[in-house]
Amino acid sequence: MRRGRADPAGPPLLILLLPAPLERFELRERAQELLAAPSAVAVEPARISLPPALGFSIARRQAKRMRLPGVPAAIAVFHAHQVPLGVALTERHLGAELWQLGAGPIEGLDSAFVLDLGAATDLRGIWKRIEALGIESGRLGSEREL
Questions:
Q1: 110, β-bridge pairs
Q2: How far is CA 111 from the centre of its chain?
Q3: Which domains are present in the chain?
Q4: Cα–Cα 20 to 30 A to 42, which of 13, 16, 93, 121?
Q5: What is the pLDDT of residues 13-72, one digit of tens each?
Q6: Quick check: 101 and 117 in contact, CB under 8 A?
């Protein structure tokens, strides 16, 4: 049984669950390209790592407490450590897609979109996917009048 809520407040968002603080992230430049989109938000990792058994329980509480400036439409993970929070956010925000943007697919994770962001030479595919979900990218004609 999936629990969740439809939260109609705010624009559709792309949430990037970073595996390290942005300034130390090996794909920082690529992440910054995505974060230049008006509806993209980065979430940096917790300062401590938890055993997997506790990770999912704590991630559910964290997802419940997160105050976001919109409604997640896509939640991107780069590393297996972000999976508990990514899954918790998709359970909390029904209809949000879980994406993998790291170097290799995470075994056993069912994702709507998989891309090795570090190896990608052209980001048009991701921009099109972002736009298809109604997330304002600031590219491809998505600018909306307020």
A1: none
A2: 11
A3: 16-132 (3.40.50)
A4: 121
A5: 999 999 999 999 999 999 999 999 999 999 998 777 767 678 888 899 999 999 999 999
A6: yes
Tokens 């992230």 belong to residue: 25
Q: Residue 7 above 70 pLDDT?
A: no
| Total-model pTM | 0.86
**Residue with token string 């790592």:** 49
Strand order in the sheet with 113-114: 40-43, 12-17, 71-77, 97-100, 113-114
DSSP designation for 35:
H
Q: What is the rounded CA–CA span in Å between residue 30 and residue 46?
A: 21
Q: Percentage of residues in the chain with pLDDT exceeding 90?
A: 68
Interval 74-94 mean pLDDT: 94
**Block residue for tokens 């991107």:** 76
